Amino acid sequence: MSLAAKLITQDPFVSSCEIALTDFPLHLGRGPESDVQVGDRWVSRDHCEIDCVDDVLLVRDLGSKHGTFVNGRSVLEAELRPGDLLNIGITRFLVDYEPAAVRTGRQEPALVS
Q: CA–CA separation, 14 vs 113, rounded Å?
């Protein structure tokens, strides 16, 4: 898997931080056993998991108390696309990676209405 993905914090009160996403699945949470520890009291100890399947990022809520949101929508499981906003607790991340079609030079099929 050669996907170079990262989460970029989107908090106006904290300097921007980039978190490289490697070694999938990756657990995000407040607890010390999490792969990415998020210092937000609204984040559960084991809040969500990010996995990569066929160069597509997926997020799964792990039964968190306050939920996992992608682009403002509550999700149990969802695909994460470049530019999506992932919210856990009151912490917001911008999802950043290059889709497989761009890395390989393939074009996505056009949608016809």
A: 43
